[in-house]
Amino acid sequence: MSDIKHTIRQYSFPHCSREALSIIEQLTVNHNTGRTVISKSIELVSEIIEEFVFCETSPLPDGSQNSSGNSNRVKKLTCIQELQLLEVLCDYFSYPGGNEAAHNTVFMNLFPDSHKDRSRLLVKLVSISISTRSKPVLNATGIWMQQLGCTSDYSLELAKGLVNDYFVLVPKAIERLQDLPKIAPRFTANFITAVAELYSLKENNENLPPEALLEVVTEWVSKNTNLCTAALFCHEPALPQGGIPMPPVTPFAGLFRWCILAPLASSTTSKLYSKLHLALLESLLDTTIPRENVVCAQHLASIVHPVLHLSQGKTNAALQLALDRLAQAVQVILESNSIYGKKQELFNLLDTLPDNRLLLLVKNKHKGL
C-alpha cells in the first residue's frame, strides 16, 4: 500500500490529484464484480484523498512524528491550486464513458459526513457545475445528498453556499437556472428539499427565503409538475454492489410550510407564495406521479406548532389564510392518497388549531379513514 502512495508522490500538483482519483476508483470498486473493497483499502483511500486530492496533509521530510503523534503535516491549498483541483474534479466526473457507480462511490469518499471541513470546496465544485451545466457532477451531487440525507448538516451547508452564490450575490439568477430541473432533476429536487429545511421558519420570524430563491423555486415547480417527485421517479442510484439506496424525501412538506407560515411570518408577504401553493397542489393532483412515500404525515404535522407560535399577535385574516392553505394541502394530499406515516398524529395536532371552516370540513371528511 505504501508503494501506491510512493508512486503518486512522483507527480507534482495537480497531476498527483488526477492520478489519485484514478487509483481511488480502482480501489473502491472492482469494475467486473462491483465488489466493495476491504476495510484496509478503505483506510488507504482516505489517506490518498487527504494527501493527494485535497492536499490536507503531507509526510514530514525525515519521517518523524509531530506533537500529535502524526507523521504528516497539515497543508493548505492556495487559491490557484483550489481552481486547479476543481478543474481536475470536473474533468474526472465528466469523462465520457466513466462508470457511474464508481464515480458516485468516489464522490461519496471525497465528501464523507466526517469531513464537513471540505464543504467550502464542495460548494465551489457544485456552483461551477451549475454554471457549466455539468450533468455528471450534478447527478453525483444529487445522489450524495440523498444518501447523506437532504436535511443533514452537510447537505444544508451545501445548500446555504449555493443560495449565497446564486441568490444573494447574483439576485437575478432565474434565467441561468431555469433549465436546471431538466439537466439534473434529482439534484434539483434534493436541493429544493434542503433549502426548504434551511428556511423552515422554526426559529424566528426572519427566516423567510430570499425573494430571488422563492422566485426560482416557484418557477421550477410551476413549469415542472413532476419535479417534487423527481427523486422518486429517477432510476435507482448507481451504487457499488451491496450499497443501500436511501429513500428520497420530497420537498412538498417543506414548501407547504413556506406557503402556510408566510402570512404569519411577515406583514408584506410576496404573491409568489400563492403561486407556489397552487403549483404544489397541482403537482399532487398530477395522476402520473407515484403515490407511495410522497408526503410524510409527521413532516406535515410539524407545521402545526409554528402556526400556533407565529399566530400570536397576528390579525385574524392572516391566521385564516394560513389555516386555509394548510387545509387545502391536507385535503389534496389525503385525496390523492399521497400520504404515509402516522395520520392519526396529524389529525390530533390539527385539533389543537384555532377554528377554521375549511379545516373543519377536511377533518370531518377524513378523520378515522
Protein described:
The chain is an all-alpha fold and 369 residues long. The protein has a domain at 1-110. Helix content is 61%, strand content 3%. The chain contains 20 helices and four strands. The protein has helices at 2-8, 15-28, 39-53, 79-94, 100-110, 119-132, 135-148, 153-168, 174-177, 180-183, 185-198, 211-223, 230-233, 252-265, 272-285, 297-301, 304-310, 316-335, 343-350, 357-366; strands spanning 57-59, 72-74, 295-296, 339-340. The strands form two sheets. A two-stranded antiparallel sheet has the order 1-2. Helix 8 (153-168) packs across helix 11. The longest helix has 20 residues, at 316-335. It is elongated. The termini are far apart. Residues 62-71 have low confidence and may be disordered.
List the helices and strands and how they pair.
Layout: H1 2-8, H2 15-28, H3 39-53, E1 57-59, E2 72-74, H4 79-94, H5 100-110, H6 119-132, H7 135-148, H8 153-168, H9 174-177, H10 180-183, H11 185-198, H12 211-223, H13 230-233, H14 252-265, H15 272-285, E3 295-296, H16 297-301, H17 304-310, H18 316-335, E4 339-340, H19 343-350, H20 357-366
Parallel strand pairs: 3-4
Antiparallel strand pairs: 1-2
Helix pairs in contact: 2-3, 2-4, 2-5, 4-6, 5-7, 6-7, 6-8, 7-11, 8-11, 11-14, 12-15, 14-15, 14-18, 15-18, 18-20
